[in-house]
Amino acid sequence: MSEIKSVAVVGASGALGPHVLKALLDANFQVTVLTRSKKEGAYDANVKIIEVDFTSVESLTAALKGIDAVVSTVAAQASQVQTVIIDAAIAAGVKRFIPSDPMFKIKQYLQEKADAGQLTWTVLVCGAFLEFLFGGPLLLDFVNHKATLYDEGDNRLSSTSLPNIGKAIAGILKNFEDTKNRIVRTSEVILTQNKLVRIAEGIRPDIKWETTKVQASAVLKEGLGEISAGDFSMPVILKVLAGTALGGDSYGSAYDETDNELLGVKELSEEELKILVAQTLG
């Protein structure tokens, strides 16, 4: 039986947050949302809402009393706030912390706390959000039938849908010991740009695709240079994400070995992928 009964979610109003909340409620966890300001009717009636000051360990500690696990879904730009939340989680006696955007510093910080026996952690690596890949032009521009191929277009990338990421997080908390102090991976589908172009051409042979090529390493270098210069804007972050995610197997962007079965994530079939492409093409 899971040692986790009560879960606090940070960043619940973002793109991923609602899916995490639904999955946790479906799994019968007691869910609390930590927020800067309450909004009436924003969450399910079964969700407890607590206003906190995210810069204050004292405020967060008070809110986390009696909470077994914390799930952070904050955006990349705000990920550094997690160290304050981690300190508060330890002070409140939280058992498990699941960070978002697990940068090396955050993971290292969690490991130091785990080594000291202060809490446990799990990092979920899920690839790119499936909805993000099909809702924008990163992989393919489905609207204008254009493809900017990174390298030769055959670099592999794992992807998982938002509902399945939520399910995976619930799966982590239901499998407390098996997910303790380690990275777990989920991958609903492994994609390449060329594979998607071939599927699209098979569905709509009347459409002529316009393709160009860029070097993933050049895009990554440009993005890292801009970050070093102090530019943390979303376009710059997307360059870094694209340069690594679409940079080939050297970056480990495709997960051939996963924890899908443990976490209850079902892989996308070829037919389901074709349906998704067809719906995106319109």
UniProtKB/TrEMBL annotation:
InterPro entries, per the entry: NAD(P)-bd_dom_sf, NmrA-like, NmrA/Isoflavone_reductase-like, PCBER-like
Record domain NmrA-like: where: 5-101
GO molecular function: oxidoreductase activity
Keywords linked to the UniProt accession: NADP, Oxidoreductase
Superkingdom in the source lineage: Eukaryota
Gene3D superfamilies named in the record: NAD(P)-binding Rossmann-like Domain
Pfam family, one: NmrA
NADP recorded as keyword: yes
Name listed for the protein in its UniProt record: NmrA-like domain-containing protein
Organism from which the protein derives: Hyphodiscus hymeniophilus
Lineage: Eukaryota, Fungi, Dikarya, Ascomycota, Pezizomycotina
